[in-house]
Each structure stands twice: as C-alpha cells, then as structure tokens.
Here is the input.
Amino acid sequence: MNELTGIDTLLIDLDDTVFDFSKAEAVAIRGSFEDVGIEPTEDLLSAYSRINKEIWKELERGEITREELLVERFRRLYEERGIGLDPSVVANIYPERLSKGHFWLPGARDAVIGLSKFCDVYIASNGTAWIQRSRIETSDLETLVKGIFISQEMGANKPSPLFFDGCFKTIKSPRSRCAMVGDSLTSDILGGKRAGLKT
Here is the structure.
C-alpha cells in the first residue's frame, strides 16, 4: 500500500477491530464468575456473550442507558439460567477484570502503524471510558494514533450523528475525506454513513 486515494483521516473502531475484545471478555468473565462461585462453563459463557451483544444493540438504539446495561446483562443471564445470586456483585467485579489489559488482533498494530504513514488515524470506540482508557494505557496504541474518541466521553454512542459531530470538533479534514473502519455494521458502518463518511 502506498496511498489511500481520497482519504486523509481514518476513524478506527477499537474492539474486535484493533483489540481482540472477544479474548479480553472471555478472560475477564471467566475470572469474574469464579470470583462469585459460579463455574464458567462454555455454555454459560456463550449465553453471556449472546445476551451482552443483544444489550449493546439496545444501547446503540437508545433503548437502555450505559449504567443500566452494566447490571442488566448479568440480571438477564441469571434469570435465564436460574442463578439465585445478586447480579450487581459480578457486575462490579467484571469491569475491574476487563480493564486489566489488552490483546492486539493479529496484524492490527502493524496496520495502524502503516496507515498512520498515509493519513491521520484516530480511534473511535463505544465503551465505558475508564475501562477503555485503562486497556489502551497497557498498550502503546495512544502513541501510534492522532487521538482517541470514546463514546462515554463524547456524550453519545455510535451510530449517533452526535458522536461523529463531536469527533469533527477535533478533526479538521472534511468528512468527504474521512473513512470509518470497524467490525459492526450497525454501529461503525451505519454511523459512518449517516455522518457522511466513507466506510
């Protein structure tokens, strides 16, 4: 690659685009369940992952708040599985465990370095700010990009146009020369298209 035709700014999603969130989630959720005395079987972990994805879609649609999401995903799991424990306990443990580190996706770090030679690269992430910041700080990602936008700090989640409006208070390129890169059709791609970006 020696040029990015017509693009001088990239917004790149963090989880499952640059960092392997699935791996980080699995490590954190296993430890969290063990901490409260629940055996983290593959079936239970699969059910949690399904419920968590569903509830993040609800957040994207504005049907639930971030604060509600943090406990509600465990409440639904406990209800579905007949677990008679207080879901707020594991809900408080899990973010601490999740914030402890990062796992790069294969080739992602090299891709960010390579892309930054041709354009301004920013990270654009939905997520809880202190968790995302903590994970980023355990890596050298912040030194590789021009800036980092996190939805909780922006006051809006992707795909909301308000999220992207906030980004362009910092980004000086016209939107027509900016692209959004990410793994989610409903968050990254739809949000980017609505905001007038290439995707």
